[in-house]
From TrEMBL:
Entries under SUPFAM superfamilies matching the protein: Periplasmic binding protein-like II (SSF53850)
Organism of derivation: Streptomyces synnematoformans
Main location: other
Pfam family, one: SBP_bac_5
Keywords annotated in UniProt: Signal, Transport
Protein name: ABC transporter substrate-binding protein
Lineage: Bacteria, Bacillati, Actinomycetota, Actinomycetes, Kitasatosporales
Keyword Signal in record: yes
Solute-binding protein family domain boundaries: 77-441
Amino acid sequence: MFFRSGPRRVAAALIPVSLLAGCGNLPASDDDERHIDVGTTSAPSTLDPAAAWDGSWELYRNVYQTLMHYAGTGAVPQPDAAKSCGFTGSDSRTYRCRLRADLTFSNGNPLDAAAVKHSFDRVLAINAETGPAGLLESLEKVETRGDRTVTFHLKRSDATFPFILAAPATSIVDPETYPADALADEGTLVGSGPYTLASYEEGSVAELERNSGYRGDAELRNDSVSIHYFDDSGAMTDALKKGDIDVTYRGLPPDRVPELEKAAYEEGSIALSRVVMPEIHYLVFNPEHEYADSLAVRHAVAQAIDRDALVRRVYGSTAEPLYSMIPRGIAGHTTAFFDRYGEPDPDAAAATLEQAGITEPVPLTLWYTSDRYGSVMARQFKELERQLDGSGLFEVTVKGRKWEQFAAAYNKGEYAVFGRGWSPDFPDPDNYIAPFTGERNALGTPYENAEITEELLPTSRREADRAGVNEQFARAQEILAEDARLLPLWQARQYIAAHDDVAGVEWSLDASTIMRMWELYKKTSW
């Protein structure tokens, strides 16, 4: 849901970049009213979809194509590269898609059934540490018939499979460019999406141009987009106010929201849209490490942390406390962690540790990424340190790393405790439980619980009516709360700030909260 305020605008300036990959000409000039500049703190970790289960999907959505997508404000997947898709039986184990005719990649190669099969097979074959192979866990094999028919055979019933086909994890890539058993050369990007990648400077800017060969459901409202990647949230806000960018998304610092609200209401220069987000933030405990392996320590942390104070002191109106791995607004949301631990209670935490024979302060190092979710993350972890140290029960050290090093380390199991954020691959409660459990998951930290992975999830996936799975997910969250290996902290309220001559903001986020750049446009250009 969007709440918008605001009105006016200043000329934009592009960051010059060198041509590294992709097709197309140089981006439009500053005077071209059909060009949009977007700022974000979510830079891609890689350009190859087989290697990313993270914020790289923001770019993928705009340059690659998937069989399905979310149309308009809908939350039910609709065909995109596919002309039609559906289960062929009542057991939700065989899913067939018929492709649109005459699809091509940006290099002119055909996008056919063989390319679709290649794209899925290589994700599983490469099985990259940071990749989305875990999302395809239910896929047994892919078969083709002719150039346009693809059939997916599943190991077990999975009513969520259409949602997976709408996720950028299943981006379709060119077999000639992307090897079957290895990642593509660095800087390579050949897709069939609404835009081509005209140039890319890692960690700085991606220049997108309208793909004249695109055949899909998106209707482009602009000709080109520059996505500027910022390490510092404050610098991104300054760039917006100076007119260097038109729109900001992800990472807007909470302490800058009031001045943007003033710009919206008093000066009329900025339009501010508040989005109710299904994005969650949480702590992960890796029981392969000392102290994180202790149920008593995990319970004590859960009892000691004050989410209300964390949100109030760090995030203000841009977040709300979260007591469930499934956020408010998604079916299956509960308050399992509040039900289990109640209000913050250091005395109860002390009793928990004492019963386990732990009488000295517990040393814990908390790790976070310094650039993925905005520079405010450092403040969040300092507040966690303040709370836990203040209880007298812990001796906390806080350390931050840039995303690339941070993700590589947690996927190797190097951290005892670390913070993560999660935006859904698809808007279903399954996607807040399944990615974090099982031997292979999105956290690089095996979490094997037979009741969740062998009973609750399989039972829920047989249910085509996704509103009818609350019982299974309520029970799953009771298990998560008792184990306390995952500790939800807060749910985001995202703000999108834009100069008031930019339209389409309210249509720009799909059901998985990924920005569709093609919906943005200058009002003067239409």
